[in-house]
Amino acid sequence: MQFQFNSDSSVMGTENVAERIEASVRQKLARFEDRLTRLEVHVSDENARKGGDDDKACMIEARPRGGKPIGVTEHASKVDDAARKAANTMAQRLERVLGKAEKHKHDPRPEKMM
Which of 47, 67, 101, 113 is 20 to 30 Å from the Cα of 8, by its Cα? Predict the structure, then answer.
């Protein structure tokens, strides 16, 4: 599974932010890793230098094998908190989508015999 991390310049002020977020997101979504081709994480500070409550955003887009992309966005006052919330929400969505597909998986239709 590929992992892509994107951020704006105002978020990258802290040390190792990309590594921390990648590690926490991968850990939370590890059980889905074999069913995903790619994870994209976008973090941003919506107010930039102005400050404010819940102005850090984290958007995660997961791309299941053979399925449509699934995206979630969460906000918090800290980037790490926004990423944690987004990873939790993504885990719930993937469980619903991939779990439902697994539950309704059928054996291929047998060939008709004459």
Answer: 67
